[in-house]
Specification:
5-stranded antiparallel sheet; 2 domains; single chain; 421 residues; Methylamine Dehydrogenase, Chain H; globular
Length: 421
C-alpha cells in the first residue's frame, strides 16, 4: 500500500511505498493533507498515480477542491449552440450574471488538464471556421479565439501533454499541444461516424469513444496511437415512446424498430473495469467490459439517455434522459434523470422534469448537492437537488449544450464538461 501526504510549503506531494519515492506537483498529485489509499495500478508515464483503485473518482470528492482553483469564481458556464455565446450563471443566486460571444456553434465548455483554463469548443457546424475560446476561471472572462479544425468536443491525454480535439465531421482525433494547441499528430477513426464522447481506462493506456451515427464504440490505444477495434452495441426489444405521460400514467413503451443505437456520453465505473454508455435510441445505458471490449449488460433508464455524471462519493451514476429520440427534439418532452447504483447496476431513483423538458449535458456541483444540466430543446438550465430530485429552472440562450460547473474538486481534468480525477 502507498500513502500520500502534501508537504506544506514545498509544493510537492510525496508518494512512499515499496522502496520508491516519487515527487509530483502538489496541485496535481494530491489535493489534501489527508492520507489517500493508493494501489498497484501501473499508469502510463506522466499520468498522476491512481489514488484508490477501488474508486478512481475518490479524488473528486467534495473535500478535494484543490488550492489551484480556490480563487476561481463559482459559476455555471453554458454554451448556447444557436446563440454563438456563453451564458454565465451565479449558482448561489441562480441569476444570469454575464453573457459573452464566442465562435460559431459552441458545443462544450471544457476544463483544461491543469484546471487553469476553460475552453469553449466551437465546431462551426457545416463550416470551416472552428475555434476554441479560452476563458479565465478567475475572472470569468474570455480571451482571443484560437483557430482549430472542427472541435466538437475536447479531451486531454492522461499525461496532460495533449489536448484531444474530437473532429466529429472528419472522423478524426487531433492531438494538439495542451497549451498552444499546435498540432502534434492525428488518429483517423474511419468507422466511427459521429465520434463525440469518451472516457479513459484506469491506467490511461486506452480510451473508448462513442460513434453516434454508427451505433458503436471505438477503442483507441493511446500508447501505440492506433484504433484497437469497434464494437456495435446491442439494441433492446422494447423502448419508451416520445409521448409525455400524464402524472398518473407510467411511461409508454413501444417495440424498438431501430436497427442501431445512438450512443452519446460514456463514463468508466469507479473500479475502472466497466464503461457505461448512454444510448439515445435504446433509452438506456450499455455496460461494456473495457479490457475485453464486449457488452456485458444494459440498464433501461428513460427516453433518450444522453449525459452521464458520477456522484461526488462515486456511488451513484446520474443519467440525463433528453426526452426525444430525435437529434432536434421539441419542447417539453418526457425528459428525466435516472439514478443508478454503481455497485448493483440498479435504478434507485427516477426524477422527471416537471412539465417536461430536455436534460442534456452538465455536471455535479462541488459539494455534490446539485446536478446542473442544460435543457437542450427548452433554452433553459436545470438545477436538480441530488437528494430529492427537485428541479429549479433558469432561462438561458438558444439551444444550450455542454455546460460546465466550476470550480470542481479533483487533481486534473480529462476534458468534456469536467471529467476530473
Amino acid at each position: 500500500m502507498i500513502r500520500t501526504r502534501v508537504l506544506q510549503g514545498l509544493g510537492v506531494a510525496l508518494f512512499v511505498g515499496c522502496g520508491a519515492l516519487l515527487l509530483v506537483p502538489a496541485d496535481i498529485g494530491a489535493v489534501s493533507a489527508v492520507d489517500v489509499v493508493s494501489s498497484t495500478v501501473v499508469t502510463v508515464p506522466g499520468m498522476p498515480p491512481v489514488s484508490d483503485a477501488r474508486n478512481l473518482y475518490g479524488s473528486t470528492a467534495s473535500a478535494n477542491v484543490g488550492t489551484v482553483v480556490k480563487d476561481d469564481l463559482e459559476r455555471i458556464y453554458v454554451p448556447n449552440l444557436r446563440g454563438n455565446n456563453v451564458t454565465v450563471i451565479d449558482p448561489t443566486t441562480l441569476k444570469v450574471v454575464d453573457r459573452f460571444k464566442v465562435g460559431r456553434s459552441p458545443q462544450h465548455v471544457v476544463p483544461s488538464w491543469d484546471l487553469r483554463t476553460l475552453w469553449v469548443a466551437n465546431n462551426a457546424e457545416r463550416g470551416n471556421d472552428g475555434s476554441l475560446t479560452p476563458v479565465d476561471p478567475r475572472t470569468g472572462k474570455p480571451g482571443k479565439n484560437v483557430k482549430v479544425d472542427d472541435p466538437y468536443n475536447m479531451y486531454f491525454s492522461p499525461d496532460g501533454k495533449s489536448a484531444i480535439i474530437v473532429a466529429e465531421a472528419r472522423r478524426r482525433l487531433d492531438f494538439r499541444d495542451a497549451h498552444t494547441m499546435e498540432m502534434q499528430y492525428s488518429i483517423a477513426v474511419p468507422e466511427c461516424g459521429g465520434i463525440n464522447h469518451a472516457d479513459f481506462s484506469i491506467d490511461g493506456r486506452y480510451a473508448i469513444f462513442t460513434c453516434e451515427f454508427n451505433g458503436s464504440i471505438a477503442k483507441i490505444d493511446l500508447v501505440e496511437r492506433r484504433v484497437l477495434g469497434y464494437l456495435k452495441l446491442a439494441m433492446p426489444k422494447i423502448r419508451f415512446t416520445d409521448k409525455k405521460p400524464s402524472k398518473s400514467e407510467p411511461p409508454a413503451t413501444e417495440i424498438c424498430t431501430a436497427t442501431k443505437g445512438m450512443p452519446q456520453d460514456i463514463r468508466v465505473s469507479p473500479d475502472g473495469k466497466r464503461f457505461f454508455v448512454a444510448d439515445m435510441e435504446a433509452d438506456g445505458v450499455h455496460i461494456v467490459d473495457g479490457d475485453a471490449f464486449r457488452e456485458v449488460g444494459f440498464i433501461t433508464t428513460g427516453v433518450a439517455a444522453h449525459g452521464l455524471y458520477p456522484s461526488r462519493d462515486g456511488k451513484k451514476l446520474y443519467v440525463a434522459n433528453r426526452g426525444s429520440h430525435k437529434i432536434h427534439g421539441g419542447r417539453n418532452g418526457p425528459g428525466s434523470v435516472t439514478v443508478v447504483d454503481f455497485d448493483t447496476d440498479k435504478v434507485v431513483a427516477q426524477w422527471p422534469i416537471p412539465g417536461g423538458g430536455s436534460p442534456d449535458m452538465g455536471n455535479v456541483s462541488a459539494d455534490g448537492q446539485w446536478l446542473w444540466l442544460s435543457g437542450r430543446f427548452d433554452d433553459v438550465v436545470y438545477r436538480i437537488d441530488t437528494g430529492t430530485g427537485r428541479v429549479d429552472t433558469i432561462a438561458v440562450g438558444q439551444e444550450p449544450h455542454g455546460l460546465t460547473v466550476w470550480p470542481q474538486p479533483g487533481r486534473y481534468s480529462l476534458g468534456h464538461t469536467g471529467n476530473l480525477r
